[in-house]
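User: These chains co-purify. Model them together.
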Amino acid sequence: MMGMVVGREVRWRKRAAHVLIWLTLALILYPFANMVWQALTAYTRADQAATWWPRFTADHLILVLGLGDTTDASTWRLAARVDFWLWMWNSVKVAAITTALATSLALSTAYAFARLRFGGRASLDNLLYMSHFFPGMLLAVAYWSIFNRIGNTFPLIGTDTHGGLVLALAGQATLGMVWAFKGYFEQLPLEIEEAARIDGATDWQTFRMIALPLARPMIVVMVLLTATQTMYEPVLSRALLNASDNATLPLGLTRFTVEAGSAGGGTSVALHEFAAAALLASLPGVLVFLFAQRWMDHSLSGAVKG
Amino acid sequence: MPHKLIAAQRVRPALPIIPASLHTALALWGPRVLGAAVSLIGLLVTMQLYLAGQWLFALVALLVVCAGLFVYMQARSSAWRFLFPGLLASVLFVLLPIAYTVSLSGSNYSSQNLLTFGRATDYLLSTRYMPEGAQRYNFTLITDGKAYRAVLESEAGEAFMSERFTLGGLRKPVPMKAISGPIADHAVDTARLIQHLNTLRALVLQLPDGSTAQMSSLQRFDASRPLYRQNADGSLSNQQDGSVIRPNHQSGYYETSAGERVPPGFTASAGLRQYTTLLTDQGLREPFLKVFAWTLAYSLLTVALSFGAGLLLASLLSWQELEFRETYKLLYYLPSAVPGMIAILIVKMMFFTNTGEVNTVLDAVFGIRPEWFATPALARTMVVAVSVWLYFPYMMMLCLGLIRAIPADLYEASALAGAGPLANFIHITLPLIARPVLPVLIASFASTFNNASLIMYLTEGGPSYLDTREPIGMTDLIASATYNIAFFSGSNFGLAAAISVLLFAIVAVLAFASLRLSRSRGFMD
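Assistant: Joint model of the two components:
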């Protein structure tokens, strides 16, 4: 139907569209390409002649991974130790416990919101919607002082502990998961559950034997997404954690400053080492994202059968 | 009907190898044992909290246990058993902290007034002083098997040795006896002494004459005495100079009769003082209003610009005849894979004055190298630019979804009528997208309005205002300013809590507006 209108004007419009898209894509993608580039190239030393080709090196990755001290005395020295594996371990630990806690609290609640009848359901539903607007940062002061007050009795969840951070993150994670699972349960085919109920299954049996197995792909996706979100949580971890041994990835990545005086003016950040660390640190998140992306598309087709 | 039953059976997991009787027993008793264990732990927590003097938290824990027992044993509707875990999480981790923030905003809680009244009093009662002519002793710690003994030698040459004690349970004063002659040489070296320093500081040695001695330096013990004695009316008498200090619940300090404060301070009620300070104090109101205005401008700009850019690109990518659309979408989507805070740190590097790519380009084209982090207007521009950079792929995805939901025949009819792309955009896309997108835009506004991470990782608030009492910078948004006030030098938690409460109110209004708009059904539903 559009065939007759295709002419010069349309061709020019298309070209303009492509150019605009290429420009914005370049804008969006350049910083990340730059990160990979910086991570894999060497510093240009003052005593070396400038070359037009880059010197590729794995030295920065080796340093960050703790496989050897590749610091070159002629470049600058880092002010703080690079404890990549410690940050990664701390992040994974906090993310795993938070996610496990949130998932176990969220599933049955989400099912009730999607399928069961109870008084006050509409208003609780509204509250659930509104609770997403309250960011964790606004609660940071309360979290800190609650942990400060009960930390003497329960040292595991005092200030500057991973236990406290887990509890602070678990609330947001649970609410997010309730919302996501609720949506998923709502669009599962109702007939299977109704058939089970007609057979005399209780709410719990229907949930446990029918809804949960059907939701398994969604649970996998949500667990992974929540875990990566908590792994890189930037605000509460910065407010609640202090000791360098407790640092998670976001806190660790801010420690690539250069020892005073060794950089000779200019930047205070060790660019190449930081880029290497950022590249390695974002790998788990990127992998989960790509994996979850594939599941999001296929999760439904497997569950629903006419 | 039968095929549905088969469907139900197919998803039923295979029963475990446990025999049937054991299985039913487990099904019957498992939940009960679990419930009993959980309630028992809950009661233990309650008791621990109560014993620690945290009766408020103890009450909360007790209420949680009772509510749990009621829901799982008594309540008729099984729906509440499903709801309980999630509701518990939102009450404990969200509602309780909100309520606690409100109560903190009515107090003077800060790094100077951190302790509860009871703990501040205990601290004062545990301070000691040296009476005139009090004995000083050289201290040696010697090992005796697995236990230890302390040896004190006075300047006059008297020597005392304590009974055996272990470093684990030093609660009571350890009695000492006078000794003469040389001491068997098992002295603990200095390194080990330093290792046990904190334990040894708690060690009280009781000399034969009834006086006690405590550690004053690594190798010295003194016959010091408690500085304060508590009187019946709650005041403390200074044993050294005879003065009396009284708790002032207005200022949160013990004060002398002359009104001098004796640290440490304690947390006391401040009424509405935090709010009135915020709105009337010259050194605070000005910067607070500036931060508020900048936060408003930042959020509006970010949402408007990223939505505008997102909508434009989404319209382009919805153009059926454009080549490579799917590839483009994938490429736009790709950066979302990188965690947000890492993206912020990466893009931060690009704005560095000497090494950043932004200035390399500007230098090549215009011959300028602006200082992005030091110049206020530039720093703010950078913040908005980075924010739009972060948000607009998300906005684009959102708009793509909404445009896809617009019935295609509308465009076909309009094309037949000879309308161009611009007319389509204004008369079809925009009006149809407006309704479903509005609640999402309000949510985005609320999240940018409360954004803290961007500032914390990009500029850390700088460049800073020079004339403020609190550590606030020119690019600080309200949330990051609150973070600075709470977790930097002064740690003014009460003030930070008061600002948080104001933000709660704003967020609640936004959330309610978004809720109303999303519940009024558009064509999307």
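Chain A touches chain B through 106 residues (CB under 8 Å).
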